[in-house]
Specification:
30% of the residues lie in helices and 31% in strands. It is α/β, with parallel strands linked by helices and 210 residues long. It folds into two domains: 2-87 and 174-204, Periplasmic binding protein-like II (D-Maltodextrin-Binding Protein, domain 2, 3-Layer(aba) Sandwich), CATH 3.40.190; 89-172, D-Maltodextrin-Binding Protein, domain 2 (3-Layer(aba) Sandwich).
């Protein structure tokens, strides 16, 4: 049996659509995290998005679907099999309109991605204080917690509603299919079959039978 870790967040519906296209998922979307569901020889577990790499890297799941942003932030020991193209977002640096950053001043940045932010500003050589938040980063400048935010955007409407403007794009992220390294060796044929079917479904926008 294969165990598949899925994120309960923004990736859930597009992940289930792809899995349904290749015949691995049948049924209604699960409504809460922590569920374990079985379909044929595949077991699905639904967890937080940032827990997917943990379950996969430690072998509690053979496969998982997670955003590239989470993979870069955590640097877990997993095999990245395919870019599934779903849920394209951009991680950007944003600040209130008209904000200036004088040279030598330490910039306070609120973000869910401290590791990515540290690496980004280290490359820039800009002194920063990274403040980790777990959600609603866009409120941080308004409440005086930070000067700027590093956050995911799709349309940019949330930034605009909070008076923030994009300063720089940090990276583009999409859904990735990942595997446990040991599972990839021991179940290589089956995992490659699943990966290739999902890649074809992603490329065609659906309509793929495994």
């Amino acid at each position: 049996m294969l165990t598949f870790a899925l994120s309960k967040g923004r990736l859930l519906e597009p992940s289930l659509r792809l899995l349904e296209c290749v015949g691995l998922w049948v049924g209604d979307p699960p409504m809460h995290d922590g569920v374990v569901l079985e379909s044929g020889d595949v077991r699905f577990i639904l967890v937080r998005d940032d827990d997917v790499p943990t379950y996969v890297s430690f072998g509690a799941a053979d496969l998982g679907i997670v955003g590239k942003d989470v993979l870069l932030e955590q640097s877990r020991d997993v095999v990245e099999l395919e870019d599934l193209r779903a849920c394209r977002c951009r991680l950007v640096l944003a600040a209130p309109a008209g904000t200036s950053f004088p040279p030598g001043r330490t910039l306070k940045v609120a973000t869910k991605y401290p590791a990515i932010a540290e690496a980004f500003f280290s490359r820039k050589g800009y002194p920063t204080q990274i403040i980790r938040v777990h959600g609603a980063a866009e409120l941080a400048p308004k409440m005086g917690l930070a000067d700027a935010v590093m956050d995911l955007v799709q349309t940019g409407r949330t930034l605009a509603r909070n008076g923030l403007v994009e300063i720089e794009e940090v990276l583009v992220t999409t859904a990735r299919l990942i595997a446990n390294p040991a599972s990839f060796m021991l179940k290589h044929g089956r995992l490659r079959q699943v990966a290739e079917a999902l890649a074809r479904a992603a490329a065609s926008g659906g309509d793929e039978d495994e």
